[in-house]
From TrEMBL:
Residues 122-241 form the ATP-dependent DNA ligase family profile domain. Belongs to the ATP-dependent DNA ligase family. Its EC number is 6.5.1.1. It comes from Saccharothrix ecbatanensis. Keywords: Ligase. InterPro entries: ATP-dep_DNA_ligase, DNA_ligase_ATP-dep_C, DNA_ligase_ATP-dep_cent, DNA_ligase_ATP-dep_CS, LigD_ligase_dom, NA-bd_OB-fold. The lineage of its organism: Bacteria, Bacillati, Actinomycetota, Actinomycetes, Pseudonocardiales. GO terms for biological process: DNA recombination; DNA repair. It holds the Pfam family DNA_ligase_A_C. GO terms for molecular function: ATP binding; DNA ligase (ATP) activity. Gene3D superfamilies: 3.30.1490.70, DNA ligase/mRNA capping enzyme, Nucleic acid-binding proteins. It catalyses: ATP + (deoxyribonucleotide)n-3'-hydroxyl + 5'-phospho-(deoxyribonucleotide)m = (deoxyribonucleotide)n+m + AMP + diphosphate. This is DNA ligase (ATP).
Amino acid sequence: MRRRHEAVRPDWVPLPEFVAPMLATAAAELPRPESRFAFEFKWDGVRAVARVEGGRVQLTSRAGNDVTGTYPELQGLGAQLGATQVLLDGEIVALSGGRPSFGALKERMHASAAQARRLVGRVPVTFLVFDVLHLDGSPTVDLPYSRRRELLEGLGLGGAHWLTPRAFPGQGAAVLAASREQGLEGVVAKRLDSRYVAGRRSPLWVKVTGVLTQEVVVGGWRPGAGKRRGLVGALLLGVPEGEGLVFAGSVGTGFGQAELERLTARLGELEVAESPFVSGVPRDRARGARWVRPVLVGEVAHRQWTADGRMRFPTWRGLRPDKSPGEVRRVDG
């Protein structure tokens, strides 16, 4: 059945199920000249695309997985938009003390639909909407960022669990300073004339952070001792390069107790006899290690890359079920 507005408009384009998010390129400094860019705060959460049609919201992760049931409190967005058909890009965050907390969000990311319903009151999430990709029968990805932003702000999004954060054209230095003062992750600079390049990392969007974050693939683990006896002591991490997984370091900090228990159980299911790393793992790291199929993606924060390709002072931030090993690339910045 054709909807009334589809019949009236011959140029009507049906709402797509999903558009892969456009990604930003990491940089150490703000792009110049600032007047050509709008600057947004970088939010410490997980990317999601919301498809809203007929008052219903469907949420899809960056990797294309349906996560609608994981965040039931976002269904109210559909009621606010009513008959509007729209595809929205944004970040799902869990706020703690007024700031996004990835640690808090981890509780929600791995929850079943039933668990999520119970967690809504204790660990609520907020959908921060920063782009519109399709609106009432018209694709918007080929419009410049400045025009898409006008359309987005025209929707008037605002509710208990969703909002459109401000963008600041030409004010990069001030936004970066405010980000650091408030303990946020950084800023994203977006060219005012940039089209939305779906599924690609583009130099037209630039992210500048205070610390480096790196997606990694888990290739093995070392058993813990003491209070961690019987649990993960450290994860052995890699980044795909060329034909295989290159060792990038190990991480033993940043884990919560419940997460350690989940990781230990999951890694036990993935155990294999041989190392998945194509590069040599240092002897002190390989001793007593248990190898796993390289299918789990995680994220760490670290200070810098060493000359031999290892992350310096890494801290675990959590598994990223929204991402696949094939997406992982080394990020310099």
